[in-house]
Amino acid sequence: MPEEAIAGDLALACCSVLVSELLEGGLGAACVSPGSRSTPVALALARSAGVPVHVHLDERSSAFFALGLARATGRPVAVVCTSGTAVPNLFPAVVEAAMSHAPLVLLTADRPPELRGVGANQTIDQVGMFGAYARFAADAPVPEAGAGPFWRSLGARAVAEAAGPPPGPVHLNLPFREPLVPTGTPVDLGPDAPPRPSAAFGEGPDEEVVADVAGLLLRHERSVVLAGGLAPAPPDRGEATASFETLGRWPVLAEPHAEAALRRPALALAAGQHLLSDPAFVRANPPEVVLQVGAPPTSRAGQALAALAGTLVVVAAEAGRSDPSGRPARHVDADPRAFLRALARSLPPPARTEWAGRWRQADRAARAAVDAVLDGNDEPFEGRVARDLFAAMPDGSTLFAGSSMPIRDLDAYALPRAGGSVRVMANRGASGIDGSVSTVLGIAASGAPTFGLIGDLALLHDAAGLLWAARRGRPAVFVVPNNRGGGIFDLLPQAALPEHEDLFVTPHRIDLSALATAAGAGHSTVYRGVDLPGAVRRAAMEDTVHVVEVPIDRAAGIRFRLEVREAVRTALAGIGYP
């Protein structure tokens, strides 16, 4: 057989070894977009037992789907695309995966070296395209006979780097020569590679460091715990089930996507963001120590509290990248989950202190004021949507909170849940709205009951993901507060500009029900706040993707936020915070 006729066989054989090693290292699934140059690696995945393959027309949506699936399962997910402009379409998801620690293995097909830089069709410079956002990157050689050990070693290195710690994206650029379709001719790939390296997820925290932090907190009664988002946990570990009661001697402000055990009613404050947003309360209760665990605070009020602390301690897998306060801080590079467990074990039972008592008294007053405003008017409002959706979700389900207002409203308005937990995820590494729909559908592919709280612009931004995947995967419920534009800009200084509407809000007249119908998804509309829980439960019973649209009047939304702020201010004044 002519030498050139077996190029496809060589490529498939080498890619099969690569895929085998990825699976041995824990690869959970693959997302593939159609293309000719990527034929060898796509075939290797499709013909390999034990790896689900999800096919996506749009590479950007495919990468975000993989991101959601990787985050939900804690296992690396491969993303396969052809050469040329297909590759940079992965970039937004790669950035998010790098900054929020989600394990992706990017397998980008490329032209062989002799076709680079000579004007060959569909050929761009793909080598090192993702720069510092890739944990590890390699430009593989063209597949050849006897190269099995190299491809096995490459797969082992890639999956180990993706798993971390900390987890993140890796990039393998794979050049293939034509012909790309194999003939079935056997290929000798040489001997097996040496044993693959082992990869552990997070080493145990240093006992001396844990003792040092525990001592610091115990010496300072006026301490606060800020718990931010965490990277996905491996499937054999899941979210912590340990008790963190000992941390209850201090106020605990846990964001929605923080460790579930910290978000329980007995521990987490129910109106923490409203307290932090009240200048009088913060002035009266400046913390001596702030323990910031996980990602930086989402809200500006949380960031301001961290900057206000006498001593700031940051615990994160990459602590140096989790401190936007711009002030000196004590950085602890450790797996936040393991550190929290060790810290909780090292602390004595919680004692009642005047400091914690003041925060909890204020929390009860503020929460009652917030709920009175939400329940006092049945006109839909984003804050009530977030609160009631979170309360209506079944135990064991997963909620994806979109960037912009959804994650902030969930943080400010949702009540901590008793009993079984709801897992909350968010693309808060780079905080973009792109890929939100595909991320939700990727989470749903893990098998968990899945809900998404995203804005109307986020839905439209990833409409391609909905149109392609709504009929091809597992059911999911999208709850979409629709204020027909970027309502967050009404709360920012841009609202005073004469160009506010056209340049920032970007109002639209798109019929979301028509979009859902075109995608083959269900659709329902909620016009009264009291009707949302029932609509969500009915949508969750359908074996399909369903969009629950909640029309929001932007002006009314601003009015509600002002009413909540004033009600909290009045309630806090009533207990002594003028």
Could you characterize the architecture of this molecule?
This protein has helices at residues 7-24, 39-46, 59-73, 91-100, 148-163, 207-219, 272-276, 279-284, 300-308, 336-346, 354-375, 382-392, 405-413, 436-444, 456-461, 463-469, 500-505, 512-519, 532-540, 554-574, and strands at 29-32, 53-55, 77-81, 104-110, 136-139, 169-175, 223-227, 252-254, 289-293, 311-316, 330-333, 398-401, 423-425, 450-453, 476-482, 522-525, 545-551. Helix content is 38%, strand content 14%. It has 20 helices and 17 strands. With 578 residues, the protein is of the alpha/beta class. Helix 11 packs antiparallel against helix 20 (554-574) and helix 16 packs parallel to helix 18. Helix 19 links the parallel strand 16 and strand 17 (545-551). The protein folds into three domains: 3-175, Thiamin diphosphate (ThDP)-binding fold, Pyr/PP domains (Rossmann fold), CATH 3.40.50; 207-352, TPP-binding domain (Rossmann fold, 3-Layer(aba) Sandwich); 380-552, Thiamin diphosphate (ThDP)-binding fold, Pyr/PP domains (Rossmann fold). The strands form three sheets. Strands 2-1-3-4-6-5 form a six-stranded parallel beta sheet, sandwiched between helices. The model is unreliable at 1-5, 194-202 and 235-241 (pLDDT under 50).
Write a concise keyword list for the protein shown above.
Rossmann fold; six-stranded parallel sheet; 17 strands; globular
Quick rundown:
The chain is α/β, with parallel strands linked by helices and 578 residues long.
